[in-house]
Structures
1.
Amino acid sequence: MASGLAVALGIAVVVGIRLANRAATQSFRQTDRALAGRADLLVRGPTPISASRLAALNALGGEATMLPYIHRIAFDPRAQDTLELYGADLLAQPPPAAAPAIAAAASAFAVRGGSHPERRAGGGAGAPGPPPRPRAKRDARRRRAGARARSSSVAGGRGPTVAPRASFAAGNRRRGMASAPALLLAAAYARRHGYRCGQILHLVIGARRLRFRIAALLPARGLARAQAGHIGVLDIGALARLLAGPGGHEAFDGLAIRLAPGVSTAAVIARLRPLIPADDVIQPPAARERQAGKMLAAFHANLLALSFVSLLVGGFLIYNAMSLAVLRRREAIAVVRALGAQASAVRRALLAEAALLASAGAVAGLGLGWLFARATVGLLSATVNNLYAVSHPLPPRLTPADIAWALGLAWAVALAAAWGPAREASAITPAAALRPEEPELAFRARQRRWAVLCLGLAAVALAAAWLPAPYGLPVNGYLSAMAAVFAAALAAPLLLRFVLPPARRWLLRRRRPRLALAAASLLSAQRRVAVLVAALATAIAMVVGVAAMVGSFRQTVRVWLGETLQAQVYIRPLAWSRRHPAAISPAMVRRAVQTPGARRAVFYYSAPFLFHHQPVVLATRWSPQEGPRRALLGGLHFLQAPAAGAARRACAANPAGMGRTSSAAAPLPPAQPLLLVSEPFARRFQLWRGARVRLLTPRGPLAARIAGVFYDYSSSQGILRVDAATYRRWFGPPPVTNIALYTASGVTPARLRRRVAVRLARAGGAFWVHDRASLRRQAIAVFDQTFRITDALELIALIVAILGVANTLWAVALERRRELAVLRFLGATPPQVRGLLLAEAAWIGVFAVFLGAVLGAVLAAILIDVVNVQSFGWTIQVHPPWAYLAAALALLFAATAAAGWPPARWAARADPLRAVAAE
Amino acid sequence: MVWEAAIGGSAVDAPAASAAVVAAEGVEMTYPGAASGAPATPVLRGVDLAVAAGECVALTGPSGGGKTTLLNLLGGMDRPTRGRVLLAGQDTARLDDAALTRLRRRAVGFVFQFFHLLPALTAMENIALPLELAGELSAADIAARSRQALALVGMEEYADRYPGRLSGGQRQRVALARALAPRPQLILADEPTGNLDRQSAQQVMALLRDLSRAQGAAVVLATHSAEAAVFASRVLPLRDGRLAAATAPPQDAAGTP
């Protein structure tokens, strides 16, 4: 029963994590997919594509149809929620790149918007009208003709800024009905926050507050289903103009290209390449999806690996349950064999039993897993939001593939765990049935072999830890951890064998007969006790290993934050995400810098960039009070410091052990670009100090040597940091995405923060303003939230293990009821019998806690030095949370001992006469 | 004899036969019906019995006759439905569980048909177990007493063997040593030879008789075996829950006892 429950919990955890992983990330994959629609290629660059640049693409003629798109994150202050805004040509027919959803959106606009009372009445103030039908028909005819003539939508010298043709905003303006652009809002979002058609919606994009009119509600199809319905669609022309502002240049985030039938993708790429800037990427949509998948692969793989621990513990328990079953049925098996059953039939019967148990567990686990996914998807999504990209989780869905996967997994674990006991059962002969002690003796006889295997696995664990990570995934790290777990499992019987006899003698000398007898009992049942200890130790090791890793990581991040955050106040646009950083307008920058009480300002630019077609972050930092090189080095702490001088001298004085630190410019020749990379970047691309790299910039390739490698814990993709002068030379003037302010003397950070917030808000800006202390608190809160899911995984693995202890102790008590009855005949009181079983549970707890602590230390080392480094490229300083670990181990020991209470109570109350009479 | 020297006494030093170590007075035992409303099953009906120190009494009779039930009542493992059992002069019905356990620990040794040695313990450790549970002796005394008991049954060389590695006769000898080690006043043996071959059975019974005599302990054994009953000083047939008049022990071919 408990084994089935253990399988169910194990399966529930892995299924739950699988579903939650998928739900948390599917949302933005879905948006990518819907946006790409039937496109064959996507063009995008690190900087927006200006409308004027698109005209150059006319050279493709009829070979391709292309449509620009815009994708922005908007913050909805009323609902305190975020929304993804898409700008697309809604009426393109057939939509060459926009998803069918956009076409559906357009039709939905016509249908649902048309049914709006205000529209039926001819349109109230600001109510959007339907797209001009005759014009739409004409456009459609044109496009059909264009498609026949294989002409692109950029043909005619108008360029691809075709959006105004279908602009609802334009339509609105013509009718003079509204000044706010029309927005198609996902019905789910409207329902959630009580929005209606025709209502004005205030949104923040970047740092700008903008008004939109909800023109229609999108039914939950295609794009509108993505991001759990946090979707708004606008006409691209309207959005481009809105973002550009008065007098600004309209720009787009990317282009979706659909090739005419028979046109080769490679040929179009070859023709497009010289027409677009060198830093723009042309790739099929699938490649972009793969990149998104790759970005999250390590994160997902780590969670999934952690979730497998529960299943592994469940596997140990199945092994134990099947071993006990074989032991109990030895006579029956011998009789069946004597009656002519083949050994293979006995084996098959037991394996079938295990498969049945696994099936029942898997079925229960699937349901529990779905519930677990529902409970954790929010946490996972928050982590994806914090670390990678905005993600609104979709409700987790259980697919037939998930069911097949869970069943397959449960069977695999159950059959692997039951194989040993089934083989043993098939070897039982009628004569052997008379020797019940035989399996135990055989187990003891194999201990030399266990020892050799244990050492072998330890060697494998050590060797795997040194191997590189294939495909950027810490596969060898997991292999190392797995080998360590099995080595510990094999060490369990050896530990019992070498510790229990002397301990027993010592206890006898100390007149502790119950503890001594408990030790003897455990020694006589080394096999099942060893498996139990191994299962519990694995779960404890997971707690210890993960807690040590998380604690160390947390402390490392705290130290890093303390050293990195040198300014007192930090400012960034309110609607912001890593994938879509927003620039702060020069007027707002001036306003922030001129806030009374601000002594000095440092500016940052940080945005996604493609290096070797892989997403990274490109950043620069500058200050009016410092030279570009000095400014770039500010607040950095180096793993490999740039050249000699001040940086190295500072390193020696760094008390936090974060490595080399630098607050002064490195002595590099002024004309040479200063390029620094973060540790995750260096590890990801294996490019360290001195390596020459080539960055594709709008002005051609920039070749530079990496001057230093700095510690960073903000991006696992890696950061390229160039000095502002170099950036300006190769990319143009850097926009400001973040501002850091230093207080003048006598001004507190909190006061400056309040002043800045008020000044910027009065100017109509929407900003996120934090002082250093609150930023640190928030960063740590994000960190803690990220690892909350691991707490849940640890807890479940422990519950599974403790269930196993309780179950096995019950089984042992039942099996030994006659033996316990004899103790009563020999003069043992009921409390003595109870104490004996509790002492056995305590012994198991002692061994499991000891072995778990040792294995946990090994796992912590593997997690910190191998898995983490290979997954994220972060160096974590070892700072185990000793007090927490000590408390956790004491609690685990108590829980294990407590697991022995129910069977101990039962055994103490059992009638000895009945037990002996049952002979 | 070795055992006489080891125990430090002899048959001559045994207490007078008239001093009853255990006595049953009008003991009745009825088990409730298995199912609700089912009639209760009377197992013992008005049993009167007194066993003196050094005496060996064999209870014989068919299966289900109440032999084991009577042994359990005499050993304080159960309480009679009616009547009373005086064990070492104390009425078992008047003692609480803890007191009864202490009395049993001090006064009674059990020998079972299936030996019931703890498989986790060696022969020596099995013998030491009741002494350890009593907690009255030092570790050295327990070891010495256990070694003596093992020597009495001729099993010194098997001290470190686990029960799984001993023959049936050897196991029963170890069980006998375990029963004798605390030097109880009463030894209760339930079919002690039921699982042994003839030769082992005779050896075990001879040991039981001789050692109990040497220790001055009373022995009550329940047996089907006429060969085992031969070793008793009194044979009491128990039929339908009633004790019949005592009979003289049968003589075996060898003329024992």
2.
Amino acid sequence: MALSITVNAERREISATPDTPLLYVLTNELKLTGPRFGCGLAQCGSCSVLVDGVERRACVTPVAAVAGRAITTLEGLPAWHAGQTGAKTPPAMHPLQQALIDEQALQCGYCYNGMIIKGAELLSKTPDPTDAQIRKAMNGHLCRCGTYPRIIKAIHRAARLMAGQRT
Amino acid sequence: MIAPTEMLLPRRDLLKLGGALLIAFPLIGRAADQSGPPDAKQIDTWLAIHSDNTATLYIGFVELGQGSSTGLAQVAAEELDLGMDQITVAPVDTQRSPNQGGTYSSAAIQRGRPQVALAAAEARAALMSLAAERLGAPVTQLRVERGRIAAEGSAATVTYGELLGNRPFSLPFSGQARTKPESQYRLVGHPVPRRDLPAKVLGVHRYIQHHRLPGMLHGRVVRPRGQAAYGAGARILSIDETSIRHLQGVRVLRRGDFLGVVAADEWLAVQAAQALRVIWEKPPALPGQEGLHAQMRAAKTDDRVALERGALDAGFRDAVHVRTQACLGPYQAHASFAPHCALADVKPDAAVVIASTQDVFGLRRSLAPLLGLAQEQIRVQYAEGAGTYGHSCYDDAAQAAALLSQLAGAPVRCQFMRWDEHGWDTYGPAHVGEVRAAVTAEGKLCAYEYHGWQHGWSLVETSAQLTGTAAAPWPASGPQGVNPLDAGGMYDIPNVKLVNHWLPALDYLRGAWLRSPLDLSFSFASEQVMDALAHAAGLDPLEFRRRNIRDARWLGVLDAVAKAADWTPRVVGPRSKSRGKVLHGRGLGLGTHLVSHGAAVADIEVDPATGRVRITQLWGAIDAGFIVNPANVESQIIGQLVQTASRMLLEEVTLDGGRVQSLDWSSYPILRFEDCPEVTPVIVQRPGERSTGAGEETMAAAAGAIANAFFDATGVRLDRYPMTPERVRKALHA
């Protein structure tokens, strides 16, 4: 029987076998370019998605394990954020995405799918994180270009942006 | 963004399609240009003007995440008086991009700025003479803003787009065009935001890993986990295809010892590559990372004097203090964050290869003999992957995709797995350095001697080697030997001798340039000996360096970093003799890679009980001449400092048991958020000077600064990095 999964609030029928890692389904069948292959070992975070609002590594998650759960990829993050804040229309970007541009944080940018997913998860639970909270939450995400300092700054900036939106 | 199918159309087909598509393809109109590169002395090679008054810039340098495509667009827009929103940069392609040489040695701005500025000035001059004719006014009375030209005292205007439309310039360089004086710059030298970032944060930027070809198969290479010695390659003894019988639709492809699998479904190919049972010949033993340096030091070497000045023995005779320092540097991996990926469509008489190479023309040269095609039959197109920091596996992956496509008779997308990337990298080579230097009673450097043991770079990619191409080292030339700029080169020393002891490359791991190649090792040894001499002379290390440097640029960058870090004069370490609590230290270092100047200050903490070193703060200053985009260079410095912290504390390829053992992020750890230092980038802007590379220079400086901070904290000099807790404990309790 064909599986179906819910990605970015859309129900999708898929043809992959149930043991196929979610990442290959998202990239090849659903043609999404947010989550991406980095290690296939859940070590780096470049494939991260939100499953019911919690960051998960799509490279080691069998697709059958997330059937019936709400999967959010980078592409669906602005809409997910709107859902969190009760906004009627999704913004063009999640505040963290805007903050990363404002900080000119990226170099190659390949790890930023995971950085944004994990950072958004953190901000949804901890609206005004300290430096130490940011470092701890983000510690499982690697950046080979060494852009951590500007990511930390951008998460603080996003927290301020979000506080401004709430008032 | 150009769709991949569009990218694959040969130029002549596009010409037939006419105007609409010409936005991305300027007409050069000469048959010889079909295979590229086009003539660098034609304006059309560099720039196309479109009817909507925008321009496309063609460059041969690739965007690796370093931001240089933004920088070169600034240079072109500046000369043309266009806005940044009016210029796009075309994808790099052997068929239509100028050959500016490879994108390495931080060359994109250094070599690219004068070339692009001149081409854009030529284009501007050509447009101005067209405008003069159209507006009936002499060129001297014309003014341009955002590509709109007006004559003084007249209301009539005309745009570049109206003058040229989608037509080519069809003009060679006149040799008469003059570039703008810096005093008139409004873009160059200013912090223009990177143009690729919005698409990257939205997740819609298409990295090479996202490219697809119609009818393609997914390929994976099958290799032993971890390379053996370069010369050993990997020999197949037997393949048991029954081991993947349960995976329907997989083909096993082989040429010599080059082995791979292809399947229509990617996950199937991944599983097959892992499940395929192959017996490989046992490779000859490697020394292991603990025995590596002793083997290197004892090896029979080809010894070459790299530099000799003055009379070394006489220099040492005049000395009051002599100090020595060794450096045992590890193999370190590029470890690109995304395993390399390439796509290829190889037909009997033509091939298209999409790769994230640093040099499309170099890759094309290596593919021709491998595929049995002429270079002119091969088109290489660049697509951005993750950062590479030097020559990693990108050409290997491209060769693998091309071989699999040729063997399969179908287009193939081949992506490496994490263990392929970590295990078959061309590593930054290991190094043994021994430096001896001396000062006079006045604290002036009088003699300096550096001996370096290392092997050169691998010339043949793994895929080619496995098909039967004999392994060979690069010719022993270039900056992979002892770097005279880093090995005391910033100091004024009358008597100097630098010697390279070249190791037989085939006996060691594959090697190539890793960001700031070997400079971290040179500086680790050399800058420590400078600190030791300052200490012996009872001088503040900053004052000691000032006394021994004459060059104003080096003094400038040294003072800039000292000021930023609020350096207070003192004689260094050890800060505290007490054991059992965390020790704090501060160190200073200088370094470079090629032309530019780098200086760094490091603050570190050492826990003598655990041996754990934490780098708490780094300052890095660069003088790279006139900096085109200061914001982007700041970003580059941040990356350099964080990577250096990672390389000094953690990174080491392990090679026990005949093969490389560090195959992923767990066995080859890199710095994480929790250990990331605070970093402060400092730019020394030099108006009027030529722009030089800014992608590497603070790395060597920071390596020296970190090593010196360790002495400052503990009173002990380390002769080896990375500074792992075990090594630190051993050094402190020796």
3.
Amino acid sequence: MGQWNGYLIFIAALGCVFFFSAIGALYWAVRHGEFKKLEKTSRQIFDEEEPEGVHTDFFPGEADKMRRKLARSRKPEKAGHHTQD
Amino acid sequence: MKNLPLLFMGIFFCLAFSFSGLILSSMIQYGHLEPVTEFVNHPDTGEQIPGAFIEIGDKLVQGVNQPDEQTFPIESVGLAQQGKQTYINMGCLYCHSQQVRRKGFGADYERGWGDRQTVPRDYILQQRVLLGTSRTGPDLMSIGMRQPSAEWHYLHLYNPQFTSPGSIMPPFRFLFETRKIGDAPSPDALKIPDGFPAEKPPAGYEIVPTDRGRELVAYLLSLKLNYELPESRFSE
Amino acid sequence: MSPLLSFFSSIDPRPKPGVPLKVQLSQIDREMRVPIVLFVVSAILWLQAGTVFALIASIKLHNPEFLGNVEWLTFGRARSAHLNAMAFGWGNNAIFAVSLWIMARLCKVSVKHGGLLVVAGAFWNVGVTAGVIGILTGGLTSVEWLEMPPQVAPLLAISFILVAVWGVIMFRYRALGHVYVSQWYILGALFWFPWLYVIAQTMILWLPARGTVQAITNWWFGHNVLGLWLTPMGLASIYYFLPKVLGRPIHSYYLSVLGFWSLALFYNWAGVHHLIGGPIPVWLVSAGIVGSIMMVIPVVVTAINHHMTAAGNWRAVWCSPTLRFIVFGGMSYTLASLAGSAMALRDINVITHFTQFTVGHAHHGVYAFFTMTMFGGIYFMMPRILNREWPSAALIRTHFWCAAIGITIMLVVLHAGGWIQGEMMTALDADGKPKYAFLEIVTALVPWLFSRSISGMLLSIGHLAFLVNFFWMLAGRKGDQDGPTLLADPNEEDVR
């Protein structure tokens, strides 16, 4: 129907604008090295106070016990599956 | 990604895209809908043909609304308009929808909630559109036709168990008042069914709807789907 | 220096150079202590208020005479008060606290002028209180997710922006160049929410759009409150706390970036699936269905990422209160979102639409996912903010089990009851007549609604345990320094 054309063109134009700006932004981002060392960013949450490899949360009063337990269980019994809920 | 403006642009565009795609484009598509008459006078024969448009050859001819003709949908006015406020602020919408889906999709038609599906034009005159997303209670798009009796509505609102035993609709007794009978009983005093002695007013007293109760019932009675639109006919 | 310049330099939250990290971090925590405690206290109080309204509404559904003559607690108002107390009282306050803290930690900067944040937060709570009272006393708008009387909207919008601005300032002055995925989610959500809110408020309540454009706007908004506000904040918490507590970086950072942009792109469109079959153009419904189905991409990507991070560390997950909640939330996110995509399919939607199934689905997303992640975040954050330990492990366990079992029961009964309701509603006999009268459906639904109230009581016990534990902690003495969740106290001399 004729009256539908107006908004179809509108949506198509909009989609094109969106699509090309996305492409443009991606191109720009790659050119400017936005994606370099991306994996390194995932380590940003650690610092020397709470470094990688250290558990930082336990039930109150159970930290030492659980820390020892975890250290023991890590090697021999990996992936203890008893905790699914 | 470390560039704040770029990140911001992306965030902005994503939302703007859906806003334009869903809301702006639907405004463009049907923001201009107008009420229509049920009939068009055929320009050649003068014959009255249902619908706002007729096809003559391959041309669509639009009917012209005459000043004395009733157009549809009908705007709710007066008491019904005020009753809608009560419907809104009591939150009726959270259990009752006001939309009829097409025949074959769900059982809206079979349940008698409407003889045709509702379409955008049905809602254009409503200041607040109350489609609803829950049918804990039945759809109310045509309740004014299914239950045309004001008395039924008063009883049902006062205590839904009177008319619909087992219903989980809340009672709306605060839309009524118990008052001393004057010279003669009021015509709209509730006739509490005999099965509910505890609900009867004391002797010499009567239970009558308050203004809000009256308005709400006027609104419910005004909900009718008794007209056709060119894009939605009873046969469909 | 001009006053303007000195103002800008005064909001610069970067620590002075040369200060040791340990001191920096505890300085951040100390400067954020007052606003964050305010947010968490308000959040927990709103959680209790929302729970009370929820119980009232839930009991009313199977026992309509319960408080039946109290006008301001009639079902429609009580359930709306529940929703708004939970979403804008509990949800937003919890988000303000957790997301601003994560932002501060990741940017390694703090807030200056925390007093303004306190004022903005106080106004937010005044606004929500006024809104909920408005709902109960007759200002209910009957626009889903926008129930509060429009008069409170300016107050809410302004105080929200005042809160959110601190998130942006922190981001602007961040110490590290690269941006962690949690920061993207938080930044995105802080921008999205006010836009959504202002547009919806305008197009539905102030200058109502014509006809069912209102309904489209309504569901674009309502679904995006979940999709572009609660969900990003929940995901930001998972992306931060899961690797942080395990001491193990997220499995794939690329996947998390993909997850972010696909969510930003597709979730916006999904809301229209609340109108399938309704009086709106068919192509719009199709767009909504496509958006809903495409949501599988960010969901699966995120699920894989989270699972691979936690895999092999289940025991560590189990002995951390934070991760118990966070992982429960993460799993619920996957399930709820996949269920949501399925519910957008026409064949399934025709059954589930208009039933308690939808209510179950909403609780799946908002409680089992979002609220659980916020619980987890608060369990991690508060000991660091207050520099003391949670007083009772038993109360944390009570909270966890009541919440986990309670919400699981609720989801099962609402989904099952809703499905049965939908099947009965659409069932036709051989003559093409409805098989069940409407009241038969209602009667069949009642036992399920009753079970829902039971599950709600379990949740209330959990919330009470949380409340007691938190205020006990707030009132308690300073903890010892070698607790597991604590940062060492800075030497006051070092800070100067």
4.
Amino acid sequence: MQDPRVRLGAVLLLSIASFFSLAGALLTLFWWLVCTNRRTSFGSFRTAAVAFLRPVIAASATALSGGDGVSYLVRISVLLVIASWAYGERYPGELLDVSVWLFGRKWGFDLGLVGEMSLSSLEILSDEFRRTRIALQQKGQHLSASNLPPVITSMLVRQFRQARERAVILAIRGFRGGGSLCPSFVTSYADIAAGVFCAAIFAVSVIV
Amino acid sequence: MQLILDQITFSRSDFTLHAQGTFTPGVHLITGRVGSGKSTLGEIVGRALSPVSGTVRYDGISSSVLSMQFPEYHLTTTNLKDEILSWGRDPEPILETAGLIGRGGDDLLTLSRGELKRLHLACLITGRYDLMVLDEPFAGLDEEARYWISTHLDEHREGIIIIISHDVTTLPSIDQIWEMQDGVLTSIGHVSQALTTWTSAPPLIRYILNHDHELSGLSWHDLVEAVCRIHE
């Protein structure tokens, strides 16, 4: 999917559809199978297993207490798949583009900038975590309860420092809010079809 | 003992890396422009990344270590003493070596990047490894610390040492030069023969070679002597 507007809109509508009904979740899964390249940001089976562990625990607890654990598990799992797909498909600057297109150069630019910086921080955190594991490996250690607090603290402090550096750079460049940006998008027929299908799923799940 | 890169490839977004070569005991310099893939190759060789295809063979190499470019990545404790202990080293000599005597109880986050780098490198290069990969070991260090590292590496030349650096001003004695160009690893050859045929040498080396044909190595001493000859 090339058009980030369709992708972000689809994430919003399909998340609502999946969350509110089992039918919506199943249709969303079908949509993901048919309309996307089925790529996700789950780099490995282990990553996926860790991501799905929490809904499995919550669903088990719900089922044991007499609730519909299966429905919960399916709906949350589909949400995770859609979120992971959207994250895996993103490209740098798309949030800024969509935000300016949607809300204009003042508030849209600021919102997009915050979104881009947040995503960039997530990527940096992910990379730093990978490198920390390398560091532990070199010392013949594994991530444990004893070294997790200093590792997390160190990563967070570095994030704060980086945020301050970014703020200084923005201030030096004279940023006071808003900015000029002319977003451009490539929309294929497949994107339009996927968007229409997605809107239909949303409508059906709301009606059902 | 040798490290063999057998038709290694690695891909990330639009970038693809290709590497082929054999690293024998001695000091190897991998140089190249920023973004050419040096650090990625270092991570592959240092067992932190797996290649997409090809194999890395560690013949006779039983211990290896990778020094990542930024020392912060290596921190797994809160204070200097614990960090040194986490490397299995004796704190006092390391603190002395790193110029941080009396600061064993200090929070690591209060150290500057240069101090952190000194501490990290002191922990690392005082260890014994068959393979040591140092990614930009001189970045963020003052001249004195750079000189100390180079001297230490010269005095403790054991196993295979790979230095990844685009800074060639304070190197120890280098045995072989490699270059990364747009993701492709090329062997320039053994120093000193390679120096005369190194067409893409960094500006400082090119300048010296253009004015002094007797440059025999890339160490700090070799460069200083060559520059002195130019002035004569």
